[in-house]
Amino acid sequence: MYKILKKKTLAENIIMFEVKAPMVAKSAKPGQFVIVRIDEKGERIPLTICDYDKDLGTVTIVFQVVGASTKKMSKLSEGEFLLDFAGPLGNPSEFVSLNTDELKKKKFLFVAGGVGTAPVYPQVKYLREKGIDCDVVIGTRNKDLVILKDEIEALGCRLYICTDDGSLGFKGRVTDFMKKLFDEGNSYDEVVAIGPMIMMKFVCLLTKEYNIKTTVSLNSIMVDGTGMCGACRVTVGGETKFTCTDGPEFDGHLVDFDEAINRQNMFKDEEVRRLHHSRECSCF
Amino acid sequence: MERVPVRELDAKERIKSFNEVCLGYSEEEAIKEASRCLNCKSANCVKKCPVGIDIPKFIDHIKKGEFKEAAEVIFMYNNLPSICGRVCPQEIQCEGGCVLKNKGQAVAIGKLERFVGDYVLENNLDVVKRKPMNGKKVAVVGSGPAGLSCASTLATLGYQVTIYEALHEAGGVLVYGIPEFRLPKEKIVKREIENLIKLGVQIKTNVIVGRTVTINQLMDEMGYDAIFIGTGAGLPKFMGIKGENANGVFSANEFLTRANLMRAFLDEYDTPLKIGKKVAVVGGGNVAMDAARTAVRLGAEVHIVYRRTEEEMPARLEEIHHAKEEGVIFDILTNPVEILKDDKGWVKGMVLRKMELKDADETGRRTPVEIEGSDYTEEFDTVIMAIGTVPNPIITYTTNEIKINNRKCIIVEEETGETTMEGVYAGGDAVTGAATVILAMEAGKKAAYAIHKKCHPGEM
């Protein structure tokens, strides 16, 4: 059993839990995820790690309420428990394997879509603690859905906000804003994009034009998260890969996003909904 | 005397539920069947048992109605008889060596073993002899057959054993893979594991060794004297044909894990499971039969698609027989060449190619060869790939000292099961590639004795 030490609503339907899980906290690195199960009858929900504190033994997760399971999870309060909390799973972000000198030669642009801001946060934090230059773009529908703004600003990076309705920052899509950044002469060695599949797809189309290496983090459907089920398979550069053990981060220019989008919708089918009170857990 | 038939649920009834198909022997039936054993000197049954159970001796106890004594004999060799009695391929092991086999029917050794195992569980008997604690600590990675067997052997030898399991429930393939109707979870698997806990074994779930904690950490920081890796062969293979990533194409592992571990067939559980009206299961092993029979119970018309003939199928005879009784259609000498999808990315059918058998290959199985121009298309809503699995690479990714071969299997010293890293042992499917429950249990037991020999030389 894993105790929820802190609960905070970051935006409408976006909730943060700080969970006591010392073994996971001790080994967690940016880019990795956990699998959570609420109760005996619950499904295994993959969620990216938003933050971790090795000393306190805590792991922070952020999730969006999109289906029955995340709805059930949102009803849990501080002091209550998650039945299972397994991780860290997946490979750490590629840059974790580089030393500080190598990293200092690079400039990163992070592009976060909605709740995808949560997994971007520990990556930017990791790099900023080493003094690496990062710019961050957050895109959401409106200003109320922007999360972790103060936390990311506090890391000392340049933060740009884009909203569809213009209620905060740039009015328009993240790709429109990125184009503006590039055309104004900002250059980046690497783009990391995490958000809805469709956003990652269009970010990759754009960065390909500008020839900038782009890493994406996929939120594929999973059961076990350890390589056993193959539900999370994705075509990368013409080869089938498992998001859980080969990813979750991949070279975005090689990912077959159309297939990935289809696969993500696999259980949104009406018939399955009726049978199984709907499911959705795309909370990466 | 004829072999005493074992009672089974009627095929028409059983496909409506996940209840266990085979009902096992009653005490009277067990005694009657045991009395068929000729107690022959050669005892080929024992020679063909991977763990060498003294079969004539335990059967002799059953004959006399001494069920507890029968159990004491079995438990000297095998701590999980209720499981082995259900899932061992007895026809090629013990029963394959029975002299009565040539005169018609071998003694039903598997069913008798199961009877004894269940008798122990039902009557809560304590038949395991154990040594006092010796102060040594061993970590066992994985709670499938290899890990359970290694842990229980070490516990009886006086070791403090902790099992680390990646999933939320202990049992490995016994829980996620083998279906309820073949191996009941609450009645058998859970109780066997509870007995292990009674022996003092600790089980820590949700720990992915290689990720949550590494082998080196277990050795250096957590102070284990030895480690046993029994992580199985959990990674599903795919065919690599066009359309294989279409929605509605599942690995047998995914399909069975959703159904077994996650209980997706029960409405009150949250995990979804999509099954169409017509399902193809590709493969001819036990896993293919398990997937096919599970799909039947979810209401589908199910086809086994296999490129050789029934004779070459690696599945147990009993499983093939049960699958047929339950209405599974066998499309033999048939191989998928492409999976067709609709405009929404869902499976709508397969292009299949007819095969013929040519000469035997080095394994003795006849090689299937494609018949040119024989392609045809058949509609399917769901395709389940059951063409094998390979060992999970998570530990070997993160522990360079442990070497693997070109089949991704952990390399061990044959005699001891020790890996290329000192003090770290491995066994079961992680070493052999996908094989059977009993072979994994044997490997776990063998490694346990090797660990014991190393920790307490001269005390065997």
From TrEMBL, chain A:
It comes from the Bacteria. SUPFAM superfamilies: Ferredoxin reductase-like, C-terminal NADP-linked domain, Riboflavin synthase domain-like. The lineage of its organism: Bacteria, Bacillati, Bacillota, Clostridia, Eubacteriales. It holds the Pfam family DHODB_Fe-S_bind. NCBIfam families: PRK06222.1. One of its GO terms (molecular function) is oxidoreductase activity. GO terms for biological process: pyrimidine nucleotide biosynthetic process. Residues 1-95 form the FAD-binding FR-type domain. Binds 1 FAD per subunit. InterPro entries: Cyt_c3_hydrogenase_gsu, Dihydroorotate_DH_Fe-S-bd, FAD-bd_FR_type, FNR_nucleotide-bd, OxRdtase_FAD/NAD-bd, PyrK_electron_transfer, Riboflavin_synthase-like_b-brl. [2Fe-2S] cluster binds at residues 229, 232, 244. This is Ferredoxin--NADP+ reductase. FAD binds at residues 62-64. Keywords: 2Fe-2S, FAD, Flavoprotein, Iron, Iron-sulfur, Metal-binding.
UniProtKB/TrEMBL annotation, chain B:
GO terms for molecular function: iron-sulfur cluster binding; oxidoreductase activity. Signal peptide: none annotated. It comes from the Bacteria. Residues 28-61 form the 4Fe-4S ferredoxin-type domain. It holds the Pfam family Fer4_20. Gene3D superfamilies: Alpha-helical ferredoxin, FAD/NAD(P)-binding domain. This is Glutamate synthase (NADPH/NADH) small chain. It comes from Caloramator proteoclasticus DSM 10124. The lineage of its organism: Bacteria, Bacillati, Bacillota, Clostridia, Eubacteriales.
